[in-house]
Amino acid sequence: MIIDSQLVFLDGEDISEATTGKAVGLTSFLKPGREEPIPLCIRMTEAAAGGTSIDLTLQESDSEDGTFTAVPGASLTVALADLGAGARLGWRWLPAAVEKPWVRLSVTPTGTFTAGKIFAALTREDALPYAAGMHIDGGVAQG
Fold first, then answer.
1. Considering the entire predicted model, what is its pTM?
2. What's the CA gap between 22 and 104, in Å, rounded?
């Protein structure tokens, strides 16, 4: 997966307290969520422990420093059981409801988390996990 640093919302951010990621510009799209699908990668980089869930909310704005509002229908709650290391969270594609040129991701924990880190970014391609036999190392299929 190719990751452009300008498209990263959160990079190894601790989920123990509410946080809002960096604003990412979608300035080349007229209606960003309605153009070609834009892959969205949200993953746990460290397993969560201690809390009960996290709320993920996509927000949008007309400018990078403007007032951000929640994207309609783009909020969800992820339970602790689904917050293991490497777990894929949320949306696979940028939701069609996104219409403004700037987006960011807000993470709000419920309960007291003692561990857990999250990564979120828009990517060039969809990041699906390898299945057995799909990973090649040194010319040899693994799995």
1. 0.84
2. 6
